Each structure stands twice: as C-alpha cells, then as structure tokens.
TrEMBL record:
Xref: Gene3D superfamilies: 3.40.50.2020
Enzyme kind, highest EC tier: transferase
Obligatory cofactor(s): Mg(2+)
Coiled coil region boundaries: none
Pathway the protein takes part in: Purine metabolism; IMP biosynthesis via salvage pathway; IMP from hypoxanthine: step 1/1
This protein's GO CC annotations: cytosol
Family in the record: Belongs to the purine/pyrimidine phosphoribosyltransferase family.
Presence of keyword DNA damage: no
Entry's EC annotation: 2.4.2.8
Protein name as catalogued: Hypoxanthine phosphoribosyltransferase
Length: 175
C-alpha cells in the first residue's frame, strides 16, 4: 500500500471498488444476454476500471481503446476529437464504453454520439463514478459504480496533473 498524504481523504476503498465491479460485471453479463460485446476503454483514465471490469463480465469480448483530446484544452469551448480511434468496426455489434468518471459529460456526449453514428447494434456506457456537480451535457450512464455529488477525486485511473492514477482506491484531494 502506498503512503497517503494528509490532503487525501478516502472516498471509496479498494475493497468497495472490487465488490462493486463484481456486481457490475454480473449486471452487464445479464444485460447482453449471452451475446458478444466489444468493450471500449477510454484512455487514460479508464484503464484500471476496464482491466478489472472485463475480467468480471462472463461473455465473449473484443477489447479496443480510444483516447480523446480537445483543441484548446483548459478553455471551456475545446472541441473534442480522437487522438486514438477504435481499430475495429463496431457496425452491428454490441458496444460497451468503459470510462472512469463522467463529470461535465462533454467527453461521453461526444463519444456516444460519434460511436452511435457507426451503427452499433447496442451502445451502452459504464462509468465508475457519475459526478453531478459540474454536469452540462445530458449523458445517460447505463452502469455506474458510484454516484458522487461533488469534489475533485483521484486514484483508480484518475489523475491530478498525471499523478495518482495507480492508486487502488478513490480519494478526494482536500486543502
Ligand atoms: O465529463 P467530462 O467533464 O468530460 O470529464 C471526464 C473526463 O475527463 C477525464 O479525462 P481526461 O480528458 O482529463 O483525460 P485522461 O482520461 O487521460 O485523464 C476523465 O478521465 C474523463 O474521461
Ligand atoms: O474529479 C475528477 N478527477 C480526476 N479527473 C477528472 N476529470 C474530470 N473530473 C475529474
Ligand atoms: Mg478520461
């Protein structure tokens, strides 16, 4: 276990995350009714949730990865693009997007709309954290791990200035 600093408050423990992922894996397995699914990891933040979730889904899976970038990041109006697109076709396939956190909703609004235009059979979104404080785009999270009202969180894929992604729990950064 890594040394934590006094400005890090536990929000969800590693044990709670793993228990919830087992439940989500069972829900997702049931949802797709024995059919194969293409599971899409949203890099970088989604990498740990994706790695654990795919191992708890009991279906035939294809795995693929995307990474989003915005022009003029840091400005409110940054338009989203792929800095890495899917490498497989999703036409006619069941697709599950796996994301660490939905915050303003702009990232998932873009990804859901863009992938939907490729005519998948079904398109669903799993997000470990559904955070409401700053929501601007109306995004439907089909499978969520935890609801959070507010706060800036790190760990389990989520970073602050590229640090803390490797932590196995979720923490809030407090002053
Ligand atoms: O709902 P939103 O306000 O769009 O924010 C959520 C997104 O922001 C973070 O990713 P980021 O683009 O910072 O890249 P990262 O995954 O590489 O950390 C996070 O991982 C989500 O993907
Ligand atoms: O709360 C957050 N933590 C880490 N990364 C994020 N990206 C959007 N919101 C967050
Ligand atoms: Mg991300």
């Amino acid at each position: 276990m890594k040394e934590l600093t006094p400005n890090m408050k536990v929000v969800v423990s590693a044990e709670e995350i793993q228990k919830r992922i087992d439940e989500l894996g069972a829900e997702i397995t049931e949802h797709f009714q024995g059919e194969p699914v293409t599971v899409v990891c949203v890099l970088k933040g989604g990498f740990l949730f994706f790695a654990d979730l795919v191992r708890s889904i009991k279906l035939d899976l294809e795995l693929d990865f995307v990474r989003l970038a915005s022009y003029g990041k840091g400005t409110e109006s940054g338009e989203l693009v792929f800095s890495k697109d899917l490498e497989t076709s999703i036409k006619g396939k069941n697709v599950l997007i796996v994301e660490d956190i939905v915050d303003t909703g702009h990232s998932m609004d873009f990804l859901l709309r863009t992938l939907d235009e490729r005519n998948p059979k079904r398109l669903a979104l799993a997000a470990l954290v559904d955070k409401h404080e700053r929501r601007e785009a109306d995004v439907k999270v089909d499978f969520y791990g935890f609801h959070l009202a507010e706060g800036f969180i790190i760990g389990y894929g989520m970073d602050f200035a590229e640090k803390y992604r490797e932590l196995d729990g979720i923490y809030e950064l407090v002053d």
